[in-house]
Design goal:
It is a single chain. With 574 residues, the chain is an alpha+beta fold. 41% of the residues lie in helices and 11% in strands. Helix 6 (274-312) packs across helix 10 and helix 6 packs across helix 15 (448-470). The termini are far apart.
Amino acid sequence: GLSSLLKCEIRRERFLLPGDKSAKTLYTANIDLRTERNGEIWGDIFDRKGRKTGALIKLDMSDNEWVDASFDNQVDIPDKKDWYFTLLIKSLDQLSTIFFPGGIELLKKPTEAANPNLKTVKLLGELIEYPTTDELFKAHWMVRYGQGFFNRLLRFSDSNNPIGNRVKARNELRTKDLGKYVVEPIEGRWVAPLSDDSMHRVFFSSNGMSHIKKFKEVDENGNMYIADLSYLSTLKYRKNYENLACKVFFNADANITMIIDHDGSEYRPGDRLWEWAKQKARTNMFIINAMNHLCVAHLRWANIPGMALRKFLEPTHPFRVVMMSHFFRTHLTSFQTKHFLIAERGPLHRSLPFEYKKGYESIFEKVLGDFRFIEYTKELENAGLKDDEYHIGATDALALRAVMMNYVSNLIDEMYPTKEALQEDAAMRKTYYYLSEKLKGVPTEYNMQNVKTVWGEIIFRVTGGHTNMGNVAIYALEPFMLNFRMNKWDKGKVLGNRETLAIVTVVGGLTQPNEYPTIQDDWRHVLHEPTSPSYETLKTELRSVAEEIDARNKVRRFVNVDYHPDYVMISTFS
């Protein structure tokens, strides 16, 4: 029989000699598989001399979810190493010191004088505009100059490194540089993340939520929901890459029923190409979500309101003081996107299958050009999802939104006892008019109700809305969830891809750190008034929302905490 003992070694890996067999063993651990309890096994860690260090190692045990074990037995056939992505992974240690924010102690009150002529960077004509500086944080030299130089220096390559051995890849993700900074999903481990059941989770309580629309009645094929991911069909792809456009359908129980490919081909559960079609759908969804995260959450909902505050309200203005926490590091993050996410030859462009012109650039033009200010309740209603029993947006998101809207309304009442007091605040008026000019769809009339509605919606979007869009850990930890570089000649094969894993783990790891300020933390020290009644009411209502979500998580299909106050980010800080 097989031995029940598992020996683990932790070695010092050299930067220039990865995989060096002469690397020194620093620690060891012997784990007895017979001691498994509730899917967990614990073991002691020993130093090089065999002495207990006092530290423990834990292994999570899970069943193989593949029906066909051949998924785990495919052989990796590397094409040619792309040094750009190799060095990108190696630079994670340096990048982590730039992107990781820390805790609530980092929040500060504003100090910078209002400046209507705030210096900005403009890209893609004037579709993108953000300040050259953040109020509190300076951009690292690597962000200002290093990444751009790096992009120009290393050649643009279509080298492709497919991954066929899923078990080996999952192990590397958790033990090598690739997954060094990727934390486990905040909602807990996903069981069978590639299953049909998991497609429900992806589209009804994860990054695919914004794509779902509900029919008024079941169609002739028994479908009630659709995620129309056709837009990517219009883009210009690089040579040999698969067109990712498709439509995904779900029945009245929100179970996946079929996928229609860009060429009209239909795939259903059990079909030979079914797993491949699901990977294509997940990949398409992730790309569009990533672009919405960047363009909508950061460059519109967060960046523009943050600019309005800095342009027209003095640092002592109570509204700017109280809003500061919700725009913490917003402009530093916007600045960091230029060479990393927006630029031609940058990491994201290189990893995706599109040409820059008429491809990647076109996504920016569409997403930013189509943006309109809309209340989340109306957005759900337009999608037919109002009161939907499966969509997390119709339950958790609405519960949190109601609290954040009430918080802003109470703050406005606290600062402006009468409508006349608000009308007399010329700086606040200029701030609002700037929003109505830059955020299409914002009502043009400056009055009490519009100010409450617009700023309430903004605060919900930069907290709960942003957290949901940025929760991508599972896509980084499961190597077969996505494949940005699906080759045409690999149709039907479910493969991972090293270039895809590189960018997803880097972006996922850097945007979802272990420690960050949440809306449940105590930030009264940076309020306009530490004893603010609005703040006290907010905290009471947030506890109620947390209890409500906890209760739902005990009975619903999948746990979700994207809108749980204990996990919701206080701003778009990363």
